[in-house]
Design brief:
Belongs to the FAD-dependent oxidoreductase 2 family. FRD/SDH subfamily. By secondary structure, this protein is α/β, with parallel strands linked by helices. It has helices at about 15-25, 65-75, 80-100, 130-145, 210-220, 245-250, 275-290, 310-315, 320-330, 385-410, 415-430, 440-455, 460-480, 490-515, 535, and strands at about 1-10, 30-35, 50, 115, 125, 150-155, 155-165, 165-175, 180-190, 225, 230-235, 255, 300-305, 340-345, 350, 365-370, 375, 460, 525, 540-545, 550-555.
């Protein structure tokens, strides 16, 4: 049995920032468990930048303006005390990244450059060309190695083990070693990212974004908060869903319909293409639905036009955008518009964090950060640039919280983790010895189809009730899935089976939350309830699980200085 004081699960920006903070505290043993090589996580897909009020591009910007933009962007569902704590920490967090070696782009005076992003009242998004997440990952990984974090690469979380409401450890599958392993830990940080792959047909997320940590926490008795709020990024490539960063619009790109119109003038006449992501995605889908898009069906699209920016600016500020467009759409944005359509991008909901200062959850010893967590700072819609900000700020807070918890706790119940590992050994034998049953691909593809078609940018009760029926049926079918590989060494079929179970579990929380929220707010847009309803739904959804039963409860939103008002952009 492996033993750590602090075990961080997930090697994106939040996970590595948590591990780095924990290993700096009190000489604790810190492990970093990751499904992949640490620098290959979804954080690398975050191209555009990280928000912070440095005032480099606008001396009139302020912490208060950033707070208000975030509250307004959240459609007033964000907890304002948590948002205030978050935003106030960001200037120092960005300076720390600078000191750690992140190569930020610079302005003419050598200061960190800042660009416009959607929903922002000032240009406050710091960036490194259009590869910001990638360079942050590499800087954090170097620091984790320097400070002695133990990296467990190609390890898959199977279960979070608890005893009497307290953490004992986890059970994991060591793919490279071909074994199921109990790991004892006094504290863990769950930083496993989102679950965008349940929208398999159109998502910006990598194949590893399957909601493993969210599902494991739900099974361990920790609720999922606000799962219905799924962000669809306006500009995914039409054919693949691959992200075309918001930086492309921040630098001045236009969105055009088949009549050559900059159609955002109909939906957000002041902010135009730099309105919030929920509004821009809904506008694009409306243009397509009303016949002003190009193409038909799932392949329908509008155009992202960068040609007027000129070759020099595109090559300097948006080199990866150009490379991706050429590689996957055979379109050079210097000369041609890019075909785009909204694509599933981000989970505003996630593991219910009950203390934003430490990222603690309801189970002693379990902390959560990054996209896997719901600290309630993004509410119903996340602003672009606030995600990289989220992971470095709350990654640090989670690392501190977990380290302090581990220093306080005595020895954990290792027997519970051993027993759980034995149960997983039996489950492995069961699923790999089935000679008949359904395949992972069959269930996964039907899940993706129903989620995109029925729980997408626009939703209705009838569509979501049909989706709930399908998801329930797929959960039943999952019990008969066969894994056609009995070898424990690099058994990717077993990994796919585990990931499918996680996606199904998270998908059910999304559908339940959306079906019961009878209003439109942020990314949750219901055609049958088109208006926001503060009287009845200015509250957080909490989905919990007991056995096979899913239960819904609610919690009030924390309002401090900004009472709900109409959003206009």
């Amino acid at each position: 049995m492996l033993t750590f004081d602090v075990l961080v699960i997930g090697s994106g920006g939040a996970g590595m920032r948590a591990a780095l903070e924990a290993v700096r505290q009190q000489g604790l043993s810190v492990g970093l468990m990751t499904k992949m090589f640490p620098t290959r996580s979804a954080t690398g897909c975050a191209q555009g930048g990280i928000n912070g009020s440095l005032k480099n591009a606008d001396p009139n910007d302020s912490i208060e303006k950033h707070i208000f933009d975030t509250v307004k962007g959240s459609d007033y569902l964000g907890d304002q005390d948590a948002i205030e704590y978050f935003i106030a920490s960001l200037p120092d967090a960005i300076r720390e990244l600078d000191y750690l070696g992140v190569p930020f782009s610079r302005d003419s005076e050598g200061r960190i450059a800042q660009r416009n992003f959607g929903g922002a009242s000032s240009p406050r998004t710091c960036f490194s060309a259009d590869v910001t997440g990638h360079v942050i990952l590499h800087a954090l990984y170097e620091q984790c190695l320097k400070h002695g974090v133990t990296v467990l690469a190609e390890w898959y979380l199977l279960q979070i083990v608890t005893d009497k409401g307290k953490l004992c450890g986890v059970v994991a599958y060591d793919m490279k070693g071909g074994r199921i392993v109990p790991v004892a830990a006094k504290a863990i940080v769950v930083a496993t990212g989102g679950a965008g792959r349940m929208y398999w047909l159109r998502t910006t997320n990598p194949f590893t974004s399957t909601g493993d940590g969210i599902a494991a926490c739900l099974e361990a008795g920790i609720p999922v908060k606000d799962p219905e709020f799924v962000q669809f990024h306006p500009t995914g490539l039409a054919g693949t869903g691959i992200l075309m960063s918001e930086a492309s619009r921040g630098e001045g790109g236009y969105l055009l319909n088949n009549q050559g119109e900059r159609f955002m003038s109909r939906y957000a006449p002041e902010k135009m293409e730099l309105a919030t992501r929920d509004l821009v995605s809904q506008a694009i889908e409306t243009e397509i639905k009303e016949g002003r898009g190009f193409g038909e069906g799932l392949q329908a699209y509008v155009e992202l036009d960068l040609r007027h920016l000129g070759q020099e600016k595109i090559m300097e500020r948006l080199p990866q955008i150009r490379e991706l467009a050429i590689t996957f759409e055979q379109v050079d944005p210097i000369h041609q518009p890019i075909p785009i359509r909204p694509s599933c991008h981000y989970s505003m909901g996630g593991i219910d964090v009950i203390d934003y200062r430490t990222c603690a959850t309801a189970v002693e010893g379990v902390f959560a950060a990054g996209e896997a967590a719901c600290i309630s700072i993004h509410g119903a819609n996340r602003l672009g640039g606030n995600s990289l900000a989220d992971i470095v700020a709350f990654g640090k807070f989670a690392g501190q919280g977990a380290a302090n918890c581990a220093a306080r706790r005595q020895a954990v119940n290792t027997e519970a983790a051993l027993q759980a590992a034995t149960a997983w050994e039996a489950r492995f034998e069961t699923v790999t010895n089935r000679s008949t049953g359904v395949t992972v691909n069959s269930v996964r593809d039907r899940l993706a189809e129903i989620m995109w078609n029925n729980v997408g940018v626009f939703r209705t009760a009838a569509e979501m009730e049909a989706a709930l029926t399908v998801v329930d049926s797929l959960l039943q079918e999952y019990q008969t899935v066969m894994v056609p590989d009995k070898n424990k060494l690099y058994n990717t079929a077993f990994v796919n089976y585990i990931e499918l179970g996680s996606m199904l579990t998270v998908a059910k929380t999304v559908v339940l939350g959306a079906l019961n929220r009878k209003e439109s707010r942020g990314s949750h847009c219901r055609a049958d309830f088109p208006n926001r309803d503060d009287a009845n739904f200015l509250k957080h959804t909490l989905v919990s699980k007991e056995g096979q039963a899913y239960n819904i409860a609610y919690r009030p939103v924390v309002i401090t200085n900004y009472p709900p008002a109409e959003r206009k952009y």
